[in-house]
């Protein structure tokens, strides 16, 4: 979004690792409505090129953007509900039918009916903020839900001294000595995601691997 200026970058791996970038860093509160561009980039293990999708949003609340992404980018018949009182949410997703199924209702009305049926109980679950697998299992059994699997989601940033050095060497290839102030022996770099700081020696940056010389 440009007015107000806002950049949110969310990275999620199949293993459950998450990291997020928010700009400007001194943002006090999110705007109620956002007009801008959402870009989705999804990498597959055996694909040469990642999947890219760009959609425009116009006056959409932050909580509603994910639903537009799922519908227009992923083309899922789904919806996301986010709790107002806890850090939890749930996704209602219509799975594809079995071969030969002809009576499955793929309309949005069928999805909303499912949400109306289970939504109040799931909203109660989110408001409770249950975290332990045992507590969640009991609650879902009461709903006659069958668990299919679980995955731990945790914050993880893969920045490192080596990665920062490689990034600075790429800049040095293009900018040369202009990358440094006169007499500067080190550069300090801060990760935009986790704010870790790295001090890289100028001699290391200038030692470009032979491949780039």
Number of strands: 9
Order of helices and strands: EEEEHEEHHEHEEH
Question: Largest sheet, described in full?
Answer: 3 strands, mixed
Tell the overall outline.
elongated
List the quaternary state of the chains. single chain
Q: Approximately what portion of the residues adopt beta-strand conformation?
A: 25-35%
Largest sheet strand order: 1-2-7
Give structural notes.
It contains five helices and nine strands. The chain has a three-stranded mixed β-sheet, with no helix packed on it. A two-stranded antiparallel ribbon has the order 3-4. A two-stranded antiparallel ribbon has the order 5-6. The radius of gyration is 23 Å and the shape is elongated. The mean pLDDT is 86. The protein is α+β, with helices and mostly antiparallel strands and 213 residues long. A hairpin with a 6-residue loop joins strand 8 and strand 9. The relative contact order is 0.10. It has three domains: 75 residues, no CATH class; 78 residues, no CATH class; 52 residues, HSP33 redox switch-like (CBS domain Like, Alpha-Beta Complex).
Architecture blueprint of SSEs:
Blueprint: E1 7-12, E2 17-23, E3 34-42, E4 51-60, H1 62-72, E5 78-82, E6 89-93, H2 108-128, H3 133-142, E7 154-155, H4 161-175, E8 186-190, E9 197-201, H5 202-206
Parallel strand pairs: 2-7
Antiparallel strand pairs: 1-2, 3-4, 5-6, 8-9
């Amino acid at each position: 979004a440009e007015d107000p200026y806002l950049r949110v970058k969310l990275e999620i791996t199949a293993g459950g690792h998450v990291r997020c970038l928010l700009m400007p860093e001194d943002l006090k509160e999110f705007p109620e409505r956002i007009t801008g561009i959402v870009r989705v980039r999804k990498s597959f293990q055996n694909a040469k090129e990642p999947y890219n999708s760009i959609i425009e949003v116009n006056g959409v609340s932050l909580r509603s953007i994910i639903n537009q992404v799922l519908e227009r980018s992923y083309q899922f018949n789904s919806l996301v509900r986010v709790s107002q009182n806890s850090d939890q949410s749930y996704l209602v997703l219509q799975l594809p039918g079995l071969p030969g199924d002809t009576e499955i209702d793929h309309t949005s009305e069928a999805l909303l009916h499912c949400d109306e049926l289970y939504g109040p109980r799931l909203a109660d679950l989110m408001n409770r903020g249950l975290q332990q697998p045992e507590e969640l299992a009991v609650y879902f059994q009461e709903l006659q839900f069958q668990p299919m699997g679980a995955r731990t989601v945790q914050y993880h940033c893969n920045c490192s001294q080596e990665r920062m050095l490689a990034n600075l060497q790429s800049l040095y290839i293009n900018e040369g000595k202009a990358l440094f102030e006169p007499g500067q022996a080190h550069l300090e770099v801060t990760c935009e995601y986790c704010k870790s700081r790295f001090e890289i020696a100028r001699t290391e940056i200038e030692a470009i691997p032979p491949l780039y010389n």
